[in-house]
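Structure (tokenized):
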């Protein structure tokens, strides 16, 4: 028990003193996860909106598939991207394996279905409320999606925060494609896994405290925004 308390105290000191190694790891984690979340929004946002207001053959199958992809196993995603980026793979010429870019690709792959599913649900609800007005106004599909995005901006932000929460907590995929290289591809989650296996609990706990604070902040913000969006529509 005394060792555990001592480890926690040391972890708090590490965080409070802005230890350079800790700050570098946190900065890389935020940079990679924010980049992946932004790309996921750029890809998944329009696709989710089009899926909500479009009518085409096989639409329900795609909706079911998108929601099924929410449970993608991270290690399988990491392995798939590893095979694509390895030297003998189809994208091996790019030299992206074991780089932050590869980590962004992995996190984007995991976050995009989340964005698509949440945007689809939000826009579908808005389309049922405002679709007739937009049709009467003669709005094109592209304009209709943009209008609904403006109306449902709270839901869009919630989708972004959900994608960020998924990305920042990821470990399986990025440790495969990033290699967990110190000072280059080591994030909070991969460092926690490594340092725990080495028995360096203070550093692991320190990063764990930061990760918990980020995760709680993201979840609380998403919850408040969902409530705000609901009251705004009401």
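Design, position by position:
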């Amino acid at each position: 028990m005394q060792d555990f308390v001592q480890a926690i105290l040391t972890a708090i000191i590490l965080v409070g003193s802005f230890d350079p190694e800790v700050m570098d790891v946190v900065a890389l984690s935020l940079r990679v996860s924010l980049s992946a979340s932004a790309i996921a929004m750029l890809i998944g946002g329009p696709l989710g909106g089009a899926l909500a207001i479009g009518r085409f053959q096989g639409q329900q199958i795609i909706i079911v598939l998108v929601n099924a992809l929410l449970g993608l196993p991270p290690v399988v995603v990491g392995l798939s991207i590893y095979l694509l980026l390895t030297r003998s793979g189809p994208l091996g010429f790019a030299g992206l394996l074991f780089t932050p870019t590869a980590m962004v690709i992995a996190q984007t792959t995991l976050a995009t279905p989340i964005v698509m599913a949440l945007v689809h649900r939000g826009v579908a609800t808005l389309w049922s409320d405002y679709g007739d007005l937009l049709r009467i106004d003669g709005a094109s599909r592209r304009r209709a999606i943009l209008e609904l995005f403006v109306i449902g901006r709270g839901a869009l932000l919630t989708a972004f925060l959900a994608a960020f929460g998924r990305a920042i907590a990821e470990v399986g995929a990025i440790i495969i494609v990033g290699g967990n290289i110190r000072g280059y591809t080591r994030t909070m989650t991969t460092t926690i896994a490594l340092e725990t296996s080495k028995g360096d609990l203070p550093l692991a706990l320190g990063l764990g405290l930061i990760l918990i604070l980020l995760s709680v902040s993201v979840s609380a913000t998403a919850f408040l925004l969902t409530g705000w969006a609901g009251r705004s529509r009401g």
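Reviewer-requested clarification: The mean pLDDT is 86. The two ends are 52 Å apart (CA to CA).
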